[in-house]
Amino acid sequence: MVLIKAIVKLPRVVSSYSYSFVSKIEKDVTWSNEEKVALLFALVKLFYVPIMLGFSLNNLDILNDSIKSGNLFEMFSNFRLKYVHLLNLFFTIDTLIFSFGYLFESEKLKNVVKSVEPTFFGWAVALATYPPFNEVTNKYLGWYSRDYFFFPDPVVDIPLKIAVVFLIGIYLWATISLGTKSSNLTNRGIVTWGAYRWVRHPAYISKVTAWWIMMLPRISLVAIISLIGWSVIYYLRAITEEKHLMNDADYRKYIKKTRFRFIPNLI
């Protein structure tokens, strides 16, 4: 109902920015805070729901093939070549949880949206990492990390792949910790348990660190500069999220308790 009211007001609010063809009454038309949040969350859904459902269906399709072919189970006997199927399992669970979070909002689920990122810059750095906008980011920064990275020497290859599985496991743990509150650009209540008990941005640091490892077989000055660029984007995502969430008293308490952004007792 709040969203419908916000949409009905849309033409009048837009026209209120014009200096002609509107009356003084029209110029005074604004959205309430509830209406702004409802409208912004509708935009979040409009963008992310198709993406997450697409990711989920694609991951489920790959997972189904890996189970039927036995690749998922062969991972234990041929970890170096099959480990990526475990990563796909993790990403399948992750995208399904996020899809649910975007699709459903309820007081019973304790995931009612309290606020949505209010700044253009906050939206820009978030959308820069998702299609179709990440194609523009790729064009300028490039992309050198590969899930199927491989080193000929198993003494090097196996520990690095174990590290990647561990890091993506933390990434999934962060999503599970968010649970029904999972969604970008929103405050649906402050999560302080699970992975978020230890650092404020466990998903970002684990994913970006995994990318650095996956880049190593293709390492070059250009690849390093590229991944520094991607790392900066995720750092900016963390900073803009914190600035948004600092409007919530619960988050201000959380920051005092969980002092580190990325690595416990370090940064």
Automatic annotation (TrEMBL):
<feature type="transmembrane region" description="Helical">
    <location>
        <begin position="83"/>
        <end position="104"/>
    </location>
</feature>
<keyword id="KW-0472">Membrane</keyword>
<keyword id="KW-1133">Transmembrane helix</keyword>
<feature type="transmembrane region" description="Helical">
    <location>
        <begin position="37"/>
        <end position="57"/>
    </location>
</feature>
<dbReference type="InterPro" id="IPR007269">
    <property type="entry name" value="ICMT_MeTrfase"/>
</dbReference>
<protein>
    <recommendedName>
        <fullName>Isoprenylcysteine carboxyl methyltransferase</fullName>
    </recommendedName>
</protein>
<dbReference type="GO" id="GO:0004671">
    <property type="term" value="F:protein C-terminal S-isoprenylcysteine carboxyl O-methyltransferase activity"/>
</dbReference>
<feature type="transmembrane region" description="Helical">
    <location>
        <begin position="158"/>
        <end position="176"/>
    </location>
</feature>
<dbReference type="Pfam" id="PF04140">
    <property type="entry name" value="ICMT"/>
</dbReference>
<keyword id="KW-0812">Transmembrane</keyword>
<feature type="transmembrane region" description="Helical">
    <location>
        <begin position="210"/>
        <end position="236"/>
    </location>
</feature>
<dbReference type="GO" id="GO:0016020">
    <property type="term" value="C:membrane"/>
</dbReference>
